[in-house]
Amino acid sequence: MKYKRIIIKIGTSTLTSGMAGISLPRLVQVVQQIADMHTSGIQVILVTSGGIAAGREALNFPDFPKFVPSKQMLSSVGQPRLMSIYTDLFRLYSKTVSQILLTRSDLSDRRRYLNARNTMEALLSYGVIPVINENDTVATEEIRFGDNDNLSAMVANLIDADLLILLTDQEGIYSSDPRSNPDAELIPLVSTPDIPEELWKAAGGSKTGLGTGGMVTKLEAADLARRSGTAVVIANGESPDILQRIANDEKVGTFFTTVASTVESRKRYILSGAQSAVGRIVIDKGAAKALIHGGSLLPVGIVDINGEFERGDTVHIIDPKQNPIALGITNYGAADLAQIRRHQSAEIENILGYTFGQEVIHHNNMLLL
Description:
The chain has helices at 12-16, 24-39, 51-58, 68-91, 104-108, 110-125, 148-158, 197-202, 215-226, 242-247, 262-271, 285-292, 334-340, 348-352; strands at residues 5-10, 43-48, 97-102, 129-134, 163-168, 189-190, 231-236, 254-256, 280-283, 302-306, 314-318, 324-329, 366-368. By secondary structure, it is an alpha/beta fold. The chain folds into 2 domains: 5-261, Carbamate kinase (3-Layer(aba) Sandwich); 273-368, Archaeosine Trna-guanine Transglycosylase, Chain: A, domain 4 (Roll). The chain has an 8-stranded mixed sheet, sandwiched between helices. Helix 3 (51-58) crosses helix 4. It is globular, with a radius of gyration of 22 Å.
């Protein structure tokens, strides 16, 4: 199986099939495909639009002015309705779903980033399909993703997805706008480090970013995701069995190769917090050896803690000779570590009254120096 973890982003155009409200027949088709992928062993995360459309439908399509409070109100009405539909449809295939609402600030703050990552990892480990949407009811301009395309790309970075599928109402990215040029050709592959400028123009805007929706945002999302180590496919959500065909590596739509690995992306994220890292965790010889061989840092291997830091901060890891050997994002703050150091992981909950996991720093969140 080539792809083990796939994010699927479904836009309003796919959910409604061009109608004013949610298209249940189309949603049934999408859910069935996702359920089949999940049954085959693929971990699936669904990023969905449609909350506002569901709200309009629930309120019999009121004529509201186009300003933020109206959209937030419609989202507040529509989001639980949309989740109820997803829950009922996935239940037909014996699948359990969860709802996750995010804003940009949730993923820019290191503590909330870590909380979101750990929650999603736990859901996936228990076979749950996370259903993610932007938290429109609280998001204002300064904390909005702007669209769920970019949200899906940031989630791809969050959970190290192998593939991001962006479903749209076109076959993929074209050499020019197919709506105005009948000779426009589908671009099957983008493998250059930078997405060619002509594709940005064909999508309806330049890379400098005057466009605010449509194909421009999908290119933005593809650019972000592939630099985080996630391959991307932009394809037509109305094509029969499109999700299974993509999962089976059939050449459909426009495929974007990765520019960096997920490991490199994770390293950049950890290093971005290195300058502000004031905390130091001193470990024993056995723990140092385990880290060098790819292990995680456990509390039993911690000798001392220096500095004030909180869960989600980047800290220095020091060996017994006071040599820095790694940087890492810690699951526990300094006060907690002072209590659990030299203890077994199984004792954490009894000591603290809660646990954020067996590892103080997971090897996936660690950079050896």
